[in-house]
Input
Amino acid sequence: MTSTESQTAVSAAGLTAKHYGAVIVGGGFAGLYALHKLRGLGFSARIYEAGDGIGGTWFWNRYPGARVDIQSLEYSYQFDEALQQQWDWSERYAPQSELLDYANHVADRFDLWPDIQLDTRIAALCYDDATRVWRATTDRGETVTADHVVMATGCLSSTNTPDFPGLASFEGRLLHTGRWPKEPVDFSGRRVGIVGTGSSAIQTIPLVAAQAAHLTVFQRTANYSVPAHNGPIPDAVVRDVKSRYADYRAANNLTALGADWDYREDTAMEHTPEEREAEYERRWARGGLSFYGSYADLLVDPVANNTAAAFIRGKIRQIVEDPATAEKLCPTAALACKRICVDTGYYATFNRPNVTLVDVKAAPIEAITATGLRTSDALYELDDLILATGFDAMTGPLTRMDIRGVGGLALKDAWAEGPKTYLGLCVAGFPNLFIVAGPGSPSVLTNMLPSIEQHVNWIGAAADYLRANGLKRIEAQIPAQDAWVAHVNETAAPTILATCNSWYLGANIPGKPRVFMPYLGFAPYVAKCEEVVARGYEGFELA
Ligand code: NAP
Output
């Protein structure tokens, strides 16, 4: 059966519905590759995408300055040699528009469009144990059935809009970095406020400041940011990587976080302060996230961590001219307990006369008024308010959807105390539902593209295995799932990553269970996934 000839099946409601080998929820990089992979294996599959275009993260996050913070030569697909040889990135860190072009190029190149349905949100997914199919209902009232569901819904796709009193009364332009309009937004001559100082804000702030009459930055927690040193990729670098692409990818996959961050195996504490300083200077000059690779003890020893953190605080004090502003911008938490940000001119932006930094931890935001933002000690008149307030990360895209497994169990109830998955891929009680880069997988702690490909390859192989063996159903077993959840927590607990109020822990969303969600360690994770398969899908029940 080809992908476009879907079978007709009788749904549980007795109505005929189109039937697919797989329904894929989301048309970002995960969904596109899942469609290509599953079709290549002979399954019929269809992507349902809520947006009116593909590209996921790069479709929605169009704010000024949005660009990837992992080198594009790495943050790209590797499943097709011709694609990775022929595609050229214009810059070391591609801008959002180029990433969107790339997604569209992939859809054109692999003829994915006939099996992509845009402007369609999956409203509900329900597993019918009698017929062993999933029933998917769209927000257009359409129902289809599928043997498998692939949740390619992304880790950072459900935006977080804080419940500020009076938000709806704001009469200026209200924007969220994660839902930026397609049309360019002109800030010329305007008084702009931005709430948040995470990765999105840190990329946006320098560009908005350069345009606006005045920019007020409302900061609750200072973040560490390192310079991108973005620019064109030297031809020699491109030639070198392309001449050994497979080896380059393989070597990166063996590192702790799955990216080319120049990992050292020695520890910071083995070195003198002068040696450490020289190493951190080297990494600051190199730019990007290579601070993660500085020393082997950076993520586990607070004393070692503070040597790098102090180095970055020193840089902030050098760059920012006003000492009081510099102090406010200096983070106090451990480096990397929240994701390190990558910027172009962020700290220097606070030297501009039209930029003000307001500490909303000291004077909390009390309300949004018709004309501005009120903290406990001042009212700021604004024409535009930008919320750079992040996402209900990892679980939000899944728990905000009505997903019901065996016996009508709702995923949001199954996860009431925090997400429980086996390998971040599957959930007990939800057979044949696969999550790409789900909680419990390395996902956001890695370069997402290789993680996505590894997951989709695993899912494709599992679906193929079931079909080849006359099986219909694969379900994670509770003991295996419980052991995996415990392992994910045990791995993170001794590290710096578990020590502050990050979205890794769900701590940015009021009331969200505090559970460390991603799995730390790409290479051991891949080995574990392969071992599970080699042992006949150990920890799963196949029927
Ligand atoms: P984020 O890191 O969660 O930052 C949200 C910001 O909003 C934080 O500064 C947070 O303060 C603040 N905030 C949230 N609620 C608030 C409230 N009620 N009052 C005041 N401040 C509030 O979100 P993000 O910047 O969108 O980034 C999320 C992740 O997306 C990043 O960590 C990264 O993984 C990814 N990302 C990547 C790129 C890239 O590749 N270049 C770019 C953007 C984003 P607190 O810290 O105090 O909570």
User: Anything to note?
Assistant: DSSP finds 16 helices and 21 strands in the chain. The pocket of NAP is lined by residues 67-69, 156, 162, 177, 195-201, 203, 220-221, 339, 360, 365, 388-391, 444, 503, 508 (CB under 6 Å). The chain has two domains: 3-158+393-542, 167-260+306-387. The longest strand covers residues 16-25.
